[in-house]
User: Fold these one by one.
Assistant:
Number 1:
Amino acid sequence: MKSVVITGGAGYLGSVISDCFLKKGWKVKVIDLLFFDKKVPLRFLNNPNYDFMNTSFSDFVSIEKFIDRQDYVIHCASIVGEPASKKYPDLTFKINYRDTVEFINFLCHKEIKGFIFISTCSNYGISDDIANENSPLNPLSLYAETKVKVEEYLKNEVKDLKWVICRLSTLYGISPRMRFDLTVNEFTARAFFEKYIDVYLPNTYRPYLHVFDAARFIYGIIENFDSMSNEIFNIGFNGENYKKIEIIEIIRKFIPDLKIEIVRKGSDKRNYRVDFSKIQNFLKLKPIFRVEDGVKQIIKAFENKILEDYRDSVYYNTEMLFK
């Protein structure tokens, strides 16, 4: 049976990747400190192909046997996002860069077929042109800076491990470890409950990707790993670059009495569009979900009280780190 280890596998993206690989019949082993929602692994524990370890990926003594002789490792674990990295800069640098580099060196001595590094399109920061994988990087947050540093380490220093770098679009959609500090999810929640959204720099662009489709990309890369190894890929779909105001207008289709206020102060100055031709040339995937579908999913979850108080700290990467 094919096997994969997912660090951060109980997180927003990692839990969806876990579900994807389990449904494909893989053995899934998750390493996660459960900084946030501690109940996520319960969703999978009845599956005999799922194994979970509550520890850090940098605890090499504990994970030695757990990770040995596994086929692939997907490294999702990190302090994610500008707000969290700003609030916890020392921890962000430690986990996202220093511990990750040591983890990569650890894997170089294991019988691992390949390593997937989850990076971000936020590395482009501000770009006048549509960014491809060879475009200049301009990280505007410590989060993105650490991702760029690990990318550089993989490209320049790692010789004994095959790798793929995945620069993900901004994610949205339903996950077992739900987040409401992501643009589409946050805007939809505020629109549903408050009928009001204030937005900074409404005409700035970003690419968006449903978390389910993100997992499909990761699975596709691993299924085609030999032909895609030691490459960088922007992960997303052409046609899915949106201005913030365009996201809000999509939401307003479902919440027509939504009020919008443009504000002059804010911290997020990112503005970039991304080209995804390279990944499409390899995998030729089409989106299962678009932004409108993600908005409808979240609204339905609220209407059916599957999700309720979106302001609960469990949904935010800045609040639950040390619980």
Number 2:
Amino acid sequence: MPNCEDIVSEEQFWGKDGDVLFSAVRLNGFRLTDWFPRAPGVYWSRHARQAREYVYSEEPHSDPGLGRYYSPQSKMALIEEGGIGTIRLRSRRIDGEVCWLGTALSRSQCHSGIPLAIPDAAIRCAGVYWGDRVNIQGRVRFLQDAGLDETAARVHHARPLIVFVDKLEGIVSRPLPEPIVISPVALFESRSDREYDRAHYTFVQCGSGSDAELDIAVECIERYTTVSVRGNHLFG
């Protein structure tokens, strides 16, 4: 691929901001996951770093079942302002091809990664699986080109970029890499002391690719929403 820019980390990609738009790129040594950043690029902004530092400087609450935890307001700040949170999207037809929507990451946190639109044919040809380490060739376009313009439309500092993959090449890596960490996001409502419904976000972090871990994550989210409703006077 002529005039192809080599990228070796998420930080490098997002640090270029819009300079990579419509560019041909080669993502070297990245891992694949079928989860997707809720707000692409936000994690790497200065605003998001400050938001995370502010929340984590606070003293968390404590619950016998949950352990140490942060209030719904703090969780929402981490999601909306701090760039934390992942979602799972169905495959869709883009430019006449069935594509999977996933993420490339050189580290372990999915929400900091690079969004991908991967043709099903490219995955089959490469013989790779989710979690594998790969080299990726593609071109940077807008999320809107993949029908994803609403994914981060209401999030400040989001960068609506995605790599349309042309080619994948699997890499044999030893030892086995650390688990890919996802942060599934859930929306729930509680009733405040002023008697009106309030919407809150929460999330929990777990490893991808394991149904057992996802089941535990769901249980944690359900427990969190129960504690939040019960202790609503703490958060109003």
Number 3:
Amino acid sequence: MLGGGVAFGRLTEFSGDSGTGKSQLLFTVAVNLPLSAGRLLFADTTGTFRPERLHQIATLRNVEPEPVLANVEVLEARTSERLVSSIDAALSSEGYSAVLVDSLSDPFYGGGSLPRETSQLSLFCRRLAFFALTKNALVVMTNGVRYNPDAGLTYPLGVEHTAAYIHTRVSLRRNGDRWLAVDLASRAKAEYAIGPAGIVDV
């Protein structure tokens, strides 16, 4: 569905409920990023980053785990203010070729359905999109979802403020022991699995 994986020069969002593999997907991306591409910044807003998980995924994919871990810099940001300021400082340093954000929802929504600051959320996504486009960088973020009972549909949190800047939007869903990824633009679908080696196509 993604033509081989997430693309450089684009802002990609994976949204879904808890348990759909959003963090596991980012761990898999971190392992698969060629070391020759440059440094990777992993912004952890939920406390879910696990270096031992990267080690496991790399080992099972026949990738040397220590260079992978050494190439990843972890930024812990529990508030939107820290996330925005830290990402701005990092991108200004020109030391990174990839940025992963897990997850966009938590610092801006704080577990609720309304964002604390919609303009800040919109500007943050615009900054990431600009970085991806101008530096041909890899930028991937995960996001939570909300259900709209009137429309009977589930939407990524903050979509009304962020959609203009996101180039690829993929919804992750779980049905029993099956997982389904849906491209929200083309409606293309693909099954995937979550295992010891991370996210794999089915």
Number 4:
Amino acid sequence: MCMNHVLLADDPAAAVEADPAVEAFAGALMATANGAASALMISIGHRTGLFDAMAGAGRLHSASLAERAGLDERYVREWLGAMATARIIEIDPDGIRFALPDAHAALLTSDAPMSLANVFQFVAVLGGVETGIVECFRRGGGLSYDAYDRFHEVMAAESDQTAVAALAPHILPLVPGLTDRLRRGIAVADIGCGEGRALLLLAALFPASRFTGYDLCADTIERARADAAAQGLVNIAFERVDATRLPECGFDCIFTFDAIHDQAHPDRVLANIRRALNPGGVYIMQEIDAQTGVANNLDHPMGPWVYTISCMHCMSVSLGQGGQGLGAAWGEQLAADHLAAAGFGAVERHRLPHDPMNLYFVARG
């Protein structure tokens, strides 16, 4: 497939010459198409371990790289073509040897602290539900979590970077004294916990505290339970629960990580969280750092990404449950209004250097 059929109808060259704005926008669209193609290839490079195999290896022929990564040479050769023309990897003047620059490896290898490679998996995951989303455009409603292949797996990897790795050094210190309280022993919950990566880490770090993870999806809960058992953690439990029907329980600290905007009824969930907090308890809510209203997000560095993720997943899974479809870009102002309506009095807002995509709310009754 190519785009020549778009550019050959009715002598488009004359039209472009007559209107520089058309020429400029055509260039922007081609850049978008190339970026989308590169995103898929970055995802494949991440999943197959090609970036890891290239890192620090110097100049490699396609056969050598295929052998290092344990992959088929013909596919590796074509992948190299995509990555070289995207200027993501370098090609020697001889045209047959390739290298991954160190500066690029710092953002693409799986163990790099600043790796962005995982993000590009969302392109393929969300592309897999395009037909279902098109039908939602026509009939309304939304999709179920089950419609998304590998979504929870990719989200768990994303959580490892933005939440799990940052818990002890960055997130817990947002609440003075919280780390000490965890050492002494308190009750902690994570609502919409997914595969439970954050709570598993906390349970290992603070054996005197008790941790409970709640999630709507059975497969993520089963995975979390299996991981807890494998790690021998006895101070943690995971329950499949609709957060609008949160059990009567008391917690000293509750977390949600990019979870509230996905809820069918976020107002009810926040009210339940407020009721579930013990006196003196604290709620830490991580949400997408955006402003309320599209006009206020025109300069957001990841605006198209946020709204696309929202349309293809966050909004849809909420509508699929008969919910309000709040969307990932509900924004700082609306989030604060929801917290106030749920009964939270003092609310602090924090932006952390390690996480440019999210805003952290610290709320107390």
